[in-house]
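Table 4 source record.
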Amino acid sequence: MINTTKDEVATFLYRLHAKISVYDIVYEDDRPKNVQTLADLDILPNERDKVVKNLAVNEYSEGPLEESQHGGGNMWVFGKRVKNEEVYLKITMGIPNNAAICISFHIAEYPMKYPFKKSES
């Protein structure tokens, strides 16, 4: 179990947003569940950018996780409410001087945990 701190998540998000502003972000639209989520939520592909750009530390779920298919950058998992659905996002910075990669952008298949979100009890 990795004990990731709020500061580490904040640093990742800061770097991610900086990278996106220069190199953009690409989405793995060859994954059927990612494409199906766009239809299920009735959102356009470019609306995902706003979701990613508005991620917050308290929406962090897990990571960094080892990644080997997209340049070896670590993957980070977040959950975000989009049109009353919990959306699972898995993001990697990808290789230097290229776009960040959103590997997963789909409706969560299981309840997600948020270690930095205060319980709403």
